[in-house]
Amino acid sequence: MKSREGKSKKTTATAVRSASKEKLKRKDYDEELARLHVELVKLQEWVVHKGLKVCVVFEGRDGAGKGGTIKAITERVSPRVFRVVALPAPSDREKSQMYVQRYIRHFPAAGEIVIFDRSWYNRAGVERVMGFCDEAQARKFLQAAPLVEKAMVESGIILLKYWLEVSAEEQTRRLEERINDGRKIWKLSPMDLKSYSRWFDYSRARDEMFAATDRSWAPWFVVQSDDKKRARLNCITHLLKQIPYKQAPRPKIKLPKRQKAGSCRESGYPFKFVEENF
Description:
About 50% of the residues lie in helices and about 10% in strands. By secondary structure, the chain is an alpha/beta fold. The protein has a domain at about 25-165 and about 205-240: P-loop containing nucleotide triphosphate hydrolases (Rossmann fold, 3-Layer(aba) Sandwich), CATH 3.40.50. A five-stranded parallel sheet has the order 2-3-1-4-5, with helices on both faces. Helix 2 packs parallel to helix 11. The protein is globular and about 75 Å long. The N and C termini lie far apart (about 70 Å). Mean pLDDT is about 90; it is low at about 1-20.
């Protein structure tokens, strides 16, 4: 009994500490994100230099902040190195394939970092909860996923799996914000509304997924995401620590001299300029 009470007090204390955190100032967030962006560029150059293969999976409930975190990671790096994969619903042809087949073709080659905005774990989450696959298919996936991921890691892929955890209250606030904000309404699909009502079904599916696929060669890392800014900074910081990197060799850059005008004159072409309203 004492043990349970102690655990309860500890949990409550943790919640109080979390709630008492001051809101991160925009200036502090921007400064830290700018510093991390520099490190992500260094990582990018090192991955290309060494021919590394990196695969990053982002999962979590609707409204957990996956898209914003991925945008924060990729907004200052090359899309030719950092590739974001967000697959639509499978076609009839893809439904007839081996389940992971349509994901495998997006795996990274040497010098690439591939980020999955939702991944093969759709089968353990949305497909299972919403009835797009049966229980036998879901359990078969949970048995096979660790073996597929072990093969990935043994082939030289650095595999990182992140689960963004959002509270029920914060998820509600964010989804309501999408309904009322014309800039965000596109983020809200009919499937989001259906899945919203099944909070505890998703909780059970998440827990079973973790129990079956949290392995030493491909562990799950959980990011507390009720505070979006802190979540992004924490996730990027963690990601950078998982891949040992250094400054790749880079020649000293100096702008060359421009050619002299010579006989060249300014163009007399009647360009159609965009109206300057601002």
